[in-house]
């Protein structure tokens, strides 16, 4: 088990937090996703991909924390195919200092699950020793909403998920995170190091300016493999089939309340 | 084939451009059509900017005719303006090709706003090519620091295609020059911070054009510079076009570009850099026309099926696609030639002439696909028709382009031993 102790007073001090931000390359939100004819998955070949929107929000938050001097260094990490480099370049263009790419061979990509990703991230945390990990709350392709929580458990770190606000706590020794939960907003204080996952209203991500896009090419991007990190990518689930959701059936209009009740009775929905 | 025969003139300050044509990314037998990573990033940023900042407001600016300052400021803050300004000034020193990529994207959103954003290119070109370091630092540096606009003031009420027929005079008075005359149809005329002005410096009518004119950089706030009212045009209504009167405008000698008498060459030289991007603007309209027409044709039903399934309609779309693909390639070739440091006049004229015709036909056909709806302001295609027309007129009319092309090809043909 990995335990990392930091002087909590350092948070308010000049050095600032070291932040690790996760970015996933997913099918672009505007694309109409199609199921493959053999029902083994969705079509990804030649389809527009971009950074998971919640991860963009995470990157933006890290950059803002740097600008507010709460953070000193921000590192982006992506677990994915060779093209994930483009996603990392976008993060660098937004203001991240350097990037790490854990490259997954295409054959293993389709079977990659949050449990594997969180193990890979945990291993990287061992060497990078960040004070804060910010992940998107979920990816828009699988909607799992698991990686952040699993990572915190593996590291035995506190977690603050669905964050809509991150600020220093009253005494500046912890982070005060406002979370969006079913009942409304919940505010908690977490000690660092911690894992936070970003929700929609945390911030609005900036455009990368053209000069920054050009500069991003020169920022360091390190490559790693799952073997180097000693993580086993053995799949633990098998996808049996992927299907389109059922086509929405047309409804029927009724003339009066009596008709409505009659129809509900017919369908056995009302006694 | 014509390449080897046409004389290759090295344009001043373009040596650095050669790097762009030596780094293709998907070379197959010596040719590549693939954009570099940087170019793809630029295209993506421009596309995103267009979708978020231009498309939502284009219709409103078309109606009001207001200058799109908020859009310009945003573009400037993202580094999307003044793409070709040199690095030593703080610019990105991108090539004509990159300018074309951005122009096409903006034009897809609104070619009027695109003309406003990229109008600086034409005004800045003379300085980029013939200005001294001091002149460049003073006038181009300003454009980088703030979202300021500049303008290219050559056309007059009595002389458009006939540049040699301009009547604005520049008379030497000691170390200064005094400019008198009337310019017309100047893009950014009312919002420019400075102008490139072409004036006749040699009153002798027998002096050849190549020696009779001088190019000046004139500050907007110089006494005697009077922009007229904003003209009420058919299309590209967000762009600011005006007449400008120059009444005893005193310009110091240090604001002369090149040397006195060089003006005509400077003014014409600018077009070699800007004709391809203007073509790209036309391509943007063609792309938008095809996009709108396709979407509509898939939704609108007649005779029980979406109209896209009627071949007459589908063939209209196909012809738009043929025009779009070929116009874009022509623009790319012209831009590539410029970036390789070669004189691209022939290719630039081909691209501009063809793309402007394609834009007009595509826009008209898009209205046709929309039918009655297309004729109405509630739908986006009538604006495309109105915006497209100017592409056959400004930056050299379609007739002038054909004059240039025929002259170039005949000169090439005559220099080959038969």
UniProtKB/TrEMBL annotation, chain A:
GO MF annotations in UniProt: electron transfer activity
Keyword annotations: Electron transport, Transport
CDD domains reported for this sequence: ETF_beta (cd01714)
A GO cellular component annotation in the UniProt record: mitochondrial matrix
InterPro entries reported in the protein's UniProt record: ET-Flavoprotein_bsu_CS (IPR000049), ETF_a/b_N (IPR014730), ETF_b (IPR012255), ETF_beta_N (IPR033948), Rossmann-like_a/b/a_fold (IPR014729)
BP GO annotations: amino acid catabolic process; fatty acid beta-oxidation using acyl-CoA dehydrogenase
Superkingdom to which the source organism belongs: Eukaryota
Electron transfer flavoprotein alpha/beta-subunit N-terminal domain residues: 39-233
SUPFAM superfamilies, sorted: Adenine nucleotide alpha hydrolases-like
Bilayer-spanning residue ranges: none
Localisation: Mitochondrion matrix
Record PROSITE patterns: ETF_BETA
Region named Disordered: 229-248
Function description: Heterodimeric electron transfer flavoprotein that accepts electrons from several mitochondrial dehydrogenases, including acyl-CoA dehydrogenases, glutaryl-CoA and sarcosine dehydrogenase. It transfers the electrons to the main mitochondrial respiratory chain via ETF-ubiquinone oxidoreductase. Required for normal mitochondrial fatty acid oxidation and normal amino acid metabolism. ETFB binds an AMP molecule that probably has a purely structural role.
Subunit and interaction comment: Heterodimer composed of ETFA and ETFB. Identified in a complex that contains ETFA, ETFB and ETFRF1. Interacts with ACADM.
Similarity-based family: Belongs to the ETF beta-subunit/FixA family.
Protein name listed in UniProt: Electron transfer flavoprotein subunit beta
Originating organism: Macrostomum lignano
Phylogenetic placement of the source organism: Eukaryota, Metazoa, Spiralia, Lophotrochozoa, Platyhelminthes
TrEMBL record, chain B:
Entry's localization field: Mitochondrion matrix
EC number(s) stated in the UniProt entry for this protein: 1.3.8.7
InterPro entries in the record: Acyl-CoA_dehydrogenase, Acyl-CoA_DH_CS, Acyl-CoA_Oxase/DH_mid-dom, Acyl-CoA_Oxase/DH_mid-dom_sf, AcylCo_DH-like_C, AcylCo_DH/oxidase_C, AcylCoA_DH/ox_N, AcylCoA_DH/ox_N_sf
Keyword Transit peptide assigned: yes
Acyl-CoA dehydrogenase/oxidase C-terminal domain boundaries: 261-409
UniProt KW keywords: FAD, Fatty acid metabolism, Flavoprotein, Lipid metabolism, Mitochondrion, Oxidoreductase, Transit peptide
Pathway: Lipid metabolism; mitochondrial fatty acid beta-oxidation
Ranges of residues in domain Acyl-CoA dehydrogenase/oxidase N-terminal: 36-145
GO function term, MF aspect, one: medium-chain fatty acyl-CoA dehydrogenase activity
Gene3D superfamilies: Acyl-CoA dehydrogenase/oxidase, N-terminal domain, Butyryl-CoA Dehydrogenase, subunit A, domain 2, Butyryl-CoA Dehydrogenase, subunit A, domain 3
One of the GO biological process terms: medium-chain fatty acid catabolic process
Main location (coarse class): mitochondrion
Known cofactor(s): FAD
Segments forming domain Acyl-CoA oxidase/dehydrogenase middle: 151-249
PROSITE patterns in the record: ACYL_COA_DH_1, ACYL_COA_DH_2
GO cellular-component term (any): mitochondrial matrix
Record-stated family: Belongs to the acyl-CoA dehydrogenase family.
PANTHER family linked: MEDIUM-CHAIN SPECIFIC ACYL-COA DEHYDROGENASE, MITOCHONDRIAL (PTHR48083:SF2), MEDIUM-CHAIN SPECIFIC ACYL-COA DEHYDROGENASE, MITOCHONDRIAL-RELATED (PTHR48083)
Name by which UniProt lists this protein: Medium-chain specific acyl-CoA dehydrogenase, mitochondrial
Native organism taxonomy: Eukaryota, Metazoa, Spiralia, Lophotrochozoa, Platyhelminthes
């Amino acid at each position: 088990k990995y335990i990392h102790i930091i002087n909590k007073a350092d948070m308010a001090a000049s050095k600032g937090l070291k932040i690790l931000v996760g970015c996933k390359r997913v099918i672009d939100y505007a694309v109409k996703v199609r199921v493959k004819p053999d029902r083994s998955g969705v079509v990804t070949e030649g389809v527009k991909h971009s950074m998971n929107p919640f991860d963009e929000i995470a990157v933006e938050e890290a950059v803002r924390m740097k600008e507010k001097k709460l953070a000193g260094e921000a590192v982006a990490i992506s677990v994915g195919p060779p093209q994930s480099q483009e996603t990392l370049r976008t993060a660098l263009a937004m203001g991240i200092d350097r990037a790490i790419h854990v490259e997954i061979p295409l054959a293993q990509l389709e079977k990659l699950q949050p449990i594997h990703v969180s193990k890979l991230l945990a291993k990287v945390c061992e060497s990078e020793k960040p004070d804060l990990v910010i992940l998107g709350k979920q990816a828009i392709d699988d909607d799992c909403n698991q990686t952040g929580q699993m990572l915190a458990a593996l590291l035995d770190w506190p977690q603050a998920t669905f964050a809509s606000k991150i600020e220093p706590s009253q005494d500046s020794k912890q982070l005060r995170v406002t979370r969006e939960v079913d009942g409304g907003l919940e505010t908690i204080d977490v000690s660092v190091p911690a894992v936070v996952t970003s929700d929609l209203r945390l911030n609005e991500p900036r455009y990368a300016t053209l000069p920054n896009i050009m500069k991003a090419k020169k920022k360091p991007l390190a490559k790693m493999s799952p073997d180097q990190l000693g993580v086993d990518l053995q799949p633990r689930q098998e996808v049996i089939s992927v299907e389109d959701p059922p086509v929405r059936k047309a409804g029927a209009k009724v003339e009066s309340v009596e008709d409505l009740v009659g129809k509900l009775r017919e369908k056995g929905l009302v006694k | 084939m014509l390449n080897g025969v046409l004389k290759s003139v090295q344009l001043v300050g373009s040596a650095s451009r050669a790097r762009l044509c030596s780094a293709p990314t998907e070379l197959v037998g010596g040719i590549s059509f693939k954009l570099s990573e940087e170019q793809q990033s630029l295209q993506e940023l421009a596309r995103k900017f267009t979708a978020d900042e231009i498309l939502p407001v284009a219709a409103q600016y078309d109606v009001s005719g207001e200058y799109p300052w908020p859009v310009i400021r945003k573009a400037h803050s993202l580094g999307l303006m003044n793409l070709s300004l040199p690095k030593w000034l703080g610019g990105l020193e991108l090539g004509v090709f990159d300018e074309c990529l951005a122009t096409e994207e903006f034009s897809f959103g609104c070619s009027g706003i695109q003309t406003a954003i990229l109008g600086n290119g034409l005004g800045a070109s003379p300085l980029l090519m013939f200005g001294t370091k001091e002149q460049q630092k003073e006038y181009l540096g300003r454009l980088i620091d703030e979202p300021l606009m500049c303008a290219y003031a050559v056309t007059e009420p009595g002389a458009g295609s006939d540049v040699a027929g301009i009547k604005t005079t520049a008379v030497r008075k000691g170390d200064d020059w005094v400019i008198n005359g009337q310019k017309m149809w100047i893009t950014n005329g009312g919002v420019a911070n400075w102008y490139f002005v072409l004036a006749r410096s040699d009153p002798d009518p027998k002096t050849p054009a190549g020696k009779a004119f001088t190019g000046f950089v004139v500050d907007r706030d110089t006494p005697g510079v009077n922009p007229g009212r904003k003209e009420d045009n058919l299309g590209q209504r967000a762009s600011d076009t005006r007449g400008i009167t120059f009444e005893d405008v005193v310009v110091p000698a240090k604001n002369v570009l090149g040397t006195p008498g060089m003006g005509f060459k400077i003014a014409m030289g600018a077009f070699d850099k800007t004709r391809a991007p203007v073509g790209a603007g036309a391509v943007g309209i063609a792309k938008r026309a095809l996009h709108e027409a396709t979407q509509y044709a898939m939704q609108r039903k007649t005779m029980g099926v979406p109209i896209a399934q009627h071949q007459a309609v589908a063939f209209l779309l196909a012809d738009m696609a043929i025009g779009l693909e070929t116009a874009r390639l022509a623009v790319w070739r012209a831009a590539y030639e410029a970036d390789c440091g070669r004189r691209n006049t022939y290719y630039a004229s081909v691209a501009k002439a063809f793309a402007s015709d394609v834009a007009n036909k595509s826009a008209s056909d898009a209205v046709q696909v929309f039918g009655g709806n297309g004729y109405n302001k509630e739908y986006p295609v009538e604006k495309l028709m109105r915006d497209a027309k100017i592409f056959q007129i400004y930056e050299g009319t379609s007739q002038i382009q054909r004059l240039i092309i025929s002259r170039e090809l005949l000169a090439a043909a005559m220099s080959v031993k038969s």
